[in-house]
Amino acid sequence: MKFTRYKTSLIGLGRIVPGLMISVMLVFSSCEQDGDGTSLETPNGDAGINYIRLPEPTTSDSLLVSATLGTGIVIVGENLGGTREIWFNDQQASLTPTFVTNKTIFVSVPSVAPSKVTDKLYLVDANKDTLVYDFVVSIPVPELYAVKNEWPKPGEHLLIAGNYFFEPVTVTFQGGGVGDIVAVSQTQIEVVIPEGATEGPIKLSTNFGETESTFHLWDKRNIILNFDDKVANGWRIGLREDLDGPIDGKYLVVRGNIAKNQRDEGPGAPAESPLTMEFWGGPAGRTENFYPSYPNSYRDYVLKFEAKVKKWYGGSLNLCLATPGHSASNQEIWSNSINARAVWAPWAAAGEEFTTGDEWITVVVPMSEFQYFMDAPSDVVYTPNQKFVESAAGSFSTWMLGSPENTGNAVEFYIDNVRFVKP
């Protein structure tokens, strides 16, 4: 392997390594001065590596033949004091002179994946003589967590979140199309969706493996409400529109000038209320939950929907579940006697008015988040940690409630494609 000349980085390892001061404080009979005045040990012969271990003294008997990106290690050997550069594959590590002695070198595996994998470690001295040692930098296959919007339009840019995204990267869509990569970091990819892409998971591959997403683009699995042919049927069916950049026909509208602690359900039944939507199981003859029923099944599922937020500050959207046969009652939005609920209020996390601009996003609510309730109609205090009733997930309602932050200010956002799926 050919090395070009690089100035050695003097950036430290960024943490105190137990037992390190013992090595640093040793007095050596023969030293030289580095360019910045740091004393360096002079080797008495050819350099050699005996083994590699973790820095902690309690792990000194555990020898390493590989390590993951960013792992701190100790190289143990003889005549190592002349080392000026350390390379893992084709990536140079940051080397601190005071962490280099004739017996040990404390160093971290680079956090950047190699472009060329040799499964070798290289110690380079001042004369550019190189000691080669077998050592594998273990790099996981890419991990896919989510995309910003699971219902994009072909040709749009898709933002993918995950980890271990190292170039070269290939993103393959259902239908066989490969997206043009716009930008890549270790945790995010921006890719152009190719024409002809169809519903389903995406595949992402690097030099270190391939992963298929558990989420689907244009996810049609287990949609309970799309506000086109799958609509609400309760006393208040919600307000539907298709006027502002719909992603898929009509969508649910939540809109109003919300007062402090407002608890208004909107117009009387049946009505297109901009504050409340009720989808009951009873009238539809539903006898089962929105997802398979088995012990703790809710832990395997999430609630998903797409949202576009024009402006939102103050208040929260209650996501209320009820039994499959529930009908002719809005009890689920007034108390927890039917079931617990989840609360969505993205402005609270932002600490300011929240908006998605002209973009739709996918909202993911784990079923374990359904744990809030209100004690009485006059009370707006949420109490957490309520037991989730596994048999009460076959009716679904949304209800916009005001909070102390509301001052009659306008709130407006849209929801589409409500579904219960695995993450």
Structure described in brief:
The protein is mainly beta and 423 residues long.
Largest sheet: 6 strands, antiparallel
For the record, what CATH class of the largest domain applies? Mainly Beta
Gap between N and C termini = 44 Å
Radius of gyration over all CA atoms, rounded: 29 Å
Q: Stretches where pLDDT falls below 50 for ≥5 residues?
A: 1-31, 35-39
CATH superfamily of the largest domain: Galactose-binding domain-like
What is the fold named in CATH at topology level of the largest domain?
Jelly Rolls
Number of helices, where a helix is a run of at least 4 consecutive DSSP H or I residues: 3
How many separate domains make up the residues?
3
- Share of residues in helices: under 10%
Q: Which architecture name of the largest domain does CATH use?
A: Sandwich
Number of strands: 28
Instruction: Round the mean pLDDT to the nearest integer and report it.
Output: 86
Structural class: mainly beta
Strand content: 25-35%
Shape: elongated
